[in-house]
Amino acid sequence: MTFPITRRGLMLVLSSPSGAGKTSICKRLLEQDAELTLSISATTRKRRPGEVEGQDYQFMSTAEFETKINRSEFLEYAQVFGNYYGTPSNLVEHSLKSGRDVLFDIDWQGTQQLKAKAREDLVSIFILPPSIKELEKRLFKRAQDSAEVVADRMSKSANEMSHYPEYDYVIINHDLKTSVQQIQSICLAERLRRERQIGLVDFIQQLRSQL
Ligand code: 5GP
After folding, report:
1. What is the whole-number distance in angstroms between the Cα of residue 14 and the centre of ligand 1?
2. What's the predicted TM-score (pTM) here?
3. Which one, out of 50, 61, 188, 195, has a CA that is 20 to 30 A from the CA of 205?
4. CA angle 40, 114, 96 (to 5 degrees)
5. Does residue 190 register a pLDDT over 80?
6. What CATH code is carried by the domain that includes residue 110?
């Protein structure tokens, strides 16, 4: 008789100052890891050119967002750069229950809320840019936000960065490929954590009973 060892899905949270390269990292991780599902946030921010409704975000009005807050439909939500951003609960719960890992691209405020709700399931990673020059370059390269928006985001980066000690891991994003590999290594190790392996107790009992 064998006992299947399955595992609980984990919540992989990535946060960074705007422009540290987190979106590209998320995209690459999702392409390369079939066990990972992206949590698609809701936001009241305007859609950027190229962004797809329901794929990048669920775009909605402030009134719609506030109705959802009142109905407790968010696992967490926060105001970032003057807009609401939030994680709808429904998809996340479904994925975790079926043993899938969920990737969250959220800020430090959202991470704190998830930590309070589900510490054991949470693995949090903070991504830093290699330099401020590089941060600015990446924000401008994106070229989808106005110079004013870029300047505002730059000025808020110092505050965002001050939250790095609240995270389990910190990665300096010198280059996309290396950062993705580092995050995959973290995932691999975290998936093997003893407490995430359901059925382990029975499996070991079975092994020991044969000795
Ligand atoms: P952007 O407008 O550049 O897409 O995102 C701005 C910031 O909002 C990023 O730091 C991103 O991680 C954060 N963000 C995106 N979705 C959520 C969410 O659902 N909750 C929280 N708390 N932050 C989010």
Report:
1. 10
2. 0.92
3. 188
4. 60
5. yes
6. 3.40.50.300
